[in-house]
Write a structure and sequence with these properties.
This protein is α+β, with helices and mostly antiparallel strands. It has a single domain (3-45, 53-119), classed as Double Stranded RNA Binding Domain (2-Layer Sandwich), CATH 3.30.160. The chain is built from four helices and three strands; from the N terminus they run ααβββαα. The protein has helices spanning 3-12, 15-27, 83-98, 103-129, and strands spanning 31-47, 54-69, 72-79. Strands 1-2-3 form a three-stranded antiparallel beta sheet. Strand 2 and strand 3 form a beta hairpin. Helix 1 crosses helix 4. The chain starts with a helix and ends in an 11-residue tail after the last helix. 24% of the residues are buried. The model has no long low-confidence stretch (mean pLDDT 92).
């Protein structure tokens, strides 16, 4: 599972599941905070639907944090003013990078949350499918 996948699952999944694991890692006392979680702005880009050219849509609020665990740096960020989520993601990323004893537990939680997210999407699509209307064109 690559960084992009992990980030997406952590963003869409149940924060409490990941936060509980991060707290276990923090409780061991090996985490060194490089940059405390703080808010910031990033430029959001979009593509023009007509000619496909990128343009700057505007600034987006986000929180970011950087930690170190056994020499491995973890970077975490979260959309909006969510400093706890950014710190949680940084801790988990550092733990995965350095092969922390809880890395297997983190991966299991990621897989479980990925399955839950997919299941939610399937249920949503099934609910939407029931409202689909089929139109037939009458020729006259």
């Amino acid at each position: 599972m690559d960084l992009t996948e992990r980030t997406k699952i952590m963003a869409e999944g149940d924060f409490q599941v990941f936060n509980d694991i991060a707290r276990e890692i923090i409780a061991a006392g090996d985490i060194r905070v490089i940059r405390e979680s703080r808010p910031g702005l990033v430029m959001m880009q979009a593509r023009d639907s007509v000619d496909g050219q990128p343009f700057n849509l505007g600034d987006v609020l986000m929180a970011e944090a950087v930690v170190e665990l056994h020499g491995c740096r973890g970077y975490g960020f979260a959309l909006g003013d969510e400093p706890d989520q950014a710190m949680c993601r940084a801790v988990l990323e550092a733990a995965l990078l350095c092969g922390h004893p809880l890395a297997a537990k983190i991966m299991a939680a990621l897989k479980k949350e990925a399955a839950a997210i997919e299941e939610g999407k399937v249920r949503e699509m099934a609910a939407i499918a029931r409202t689909r209307v089929n139109f037939e064109v009458m020729e006259g």
